[in-house]
Every structure is written in C-alpha cells, then in structure tokens.
Amino acid sequence: MFSKALHSSIASWSFHDDSFTQATKDKVFLYQLSHQDIKAITPHTLVIGNVCDEDRTSTKIHRQLADLNILIKSDNHLNAAAINGTSMAKNIVLITRHKLSLLVNLLFWWEEEMMRWDGFEAKKANYAQQLEEAHPDESAEERSRKMNEAVKIITVMQRDMPSQRQEGKETSWNTTGGSRREWELRESERWVSERGGPGGEVVEDEHGLPAYEHSGVDGRE
C-alpha cells in the first residue's frame, strides 16, 4: 500500500510507538464523525489523538501541516503524499520526537480510514446503479425502498468504530457484532423470508449486498 511505502521511508527517524492505541483510534474516529465533513482534520483532532496537550499548540502544528501541504488548506483534508519525515522533523519543533512519531502514525492511519470510508461510499453508489440496471421497469418508489434498506446497513458498517469491526465481516450482510447489529439482524431475517436463497441463506452479490433472485444484480441470470 502507498502509505506503508511512505511509512518505511521515514523509519530512520521515526520509531515504534505503542501509545497510538485502539482506544485513541476510537476517540479520533468518533470525534471526526461529529463533523459535517469527516475528512477534515481540525486542530482539536491532534488533541484527541494525544499529539498535543492543548489547542493552542495543536493550532500551530495544524498550521505547519498546512504549510507543508500535508493538509490541504481549502478543506483540511489529508494529503498523505506530502508526508516527509525529514521536512516534518525540521519544521515541526513544538512537540517531542515521540509526539512527532505519534503524529505520523495518526496521519497514515487516517489515510487508511478515509480509503475505507470512500469504499463504503462507492458501495452505496454502485448498488443504486445496479438496482436501476437490474430493474428498469420497476417503479422508482420500489427501487428507492430497496436502496434505502441497503444504505442503512452499509452506513452502520461504515460508521463502526475501529474496535467494533470484525475482520472479514465488513461487507457481509449477515454481520453479527452485538447490540449495534440487532436491528440489522432483524432486517437480514426479513430478507431471508422474502428473498432468501436455498437453505435459508441470503443470496449476496459480489459486493456483499443482497442479490435479488433472477435479477442479474449479482451477475447471475
């Protein structure tokens, strides 16, 4: 992955940092979710991520990241391609080497989080197109109903905190991850009774979403 290649390029000055914990990732993710634009990194993001202890310092670090083009000034989105260990160590001097290493870890992790986020956004858009192509004669109201049901489940998975995700389960319609999934299971059971495949299993398409029998949504006739 691109970010891993970049990360290895700064290994000479960075070091392994166990302080960027799962709990910290959860806090940062929840904080970003509270914004209208989840991708926008704010000065307080750096405080939540334990890079800085106060907003006064984080505001200065945030400005330096923008000056280095690591944050895009127009929207504060991350530009991971601009991360350069030597340049950061030279220009960001208000925090310790340990905190600088933590900052780098946070930025690379956030790049991967936003790739994951965009993947779910694409999944929503692609599913809408698949429904329209598979059911050209179906009413817009019916397609909208089916789409809304799928989007609800995709969105729940998209917004799961890092600690709540199950390896290999994020694209599964039948994910069972506890109380947050209870309503999802009820939806899944209804799909089994209404459009289930052989043996009571929900027929899924290549994107892990329910495929309508004989619809061609999953590429099968």
Q: Can you offer a commentary on this structure?
A:
The structure is a single chain. With 221 residues, the protein is mainly alpha-helical. The protein contains eight helices and no strands. The chain has helices at residues 2-9, 22-33, 43-48, 55-67, 85-91, 97-134, 140-158, 182-195. It has two domains: 2-113, no CATH class; 135-200, no CATH class. Helix 6 (97-134) runs antiparallel to helix 7 (140-158).
Topology:
Layout: H1 2-9, H2 22-33, H3 43-48, H4 55-67, H5 85-91, H6 97-134, H7 140-158, H8 182-195
Helix pairs in contact: 6-7
Biased composition (Polar residues): 161-178
Region (Disordered): 158-221
Biased composition (Basic and acidic residues): 179-193
Q: Number of DSSP helices?
A: 8
Q: What global shape is seen?
A: elongated
Distance between the termini: 36 Å
Number of domains: 2
Query: Given the helix and strand composition, which structural class is it?
Result: mainly alpha
Contiguous runs where pLDDT drops below 50 for at least 5 residues: 1-15, 171-183, 188-205, 207-221
Residue share in β-strands: under 5%
Overall pLDDT confidence: 76
Main traits of this protein?
disordered C terminus; 2 domains; 53% helix; 221 residues; single chain
Q: In brief, what are we looking at here?
A:
This protein has 221 residues and is mainly alpha-helical. It has helices spanning 2-9, 22-33, 43-48, 55-67, 85-91, 97-134, 140-158, 182-195. Helix 6 (97-134) packs antiparallel against helix 7.
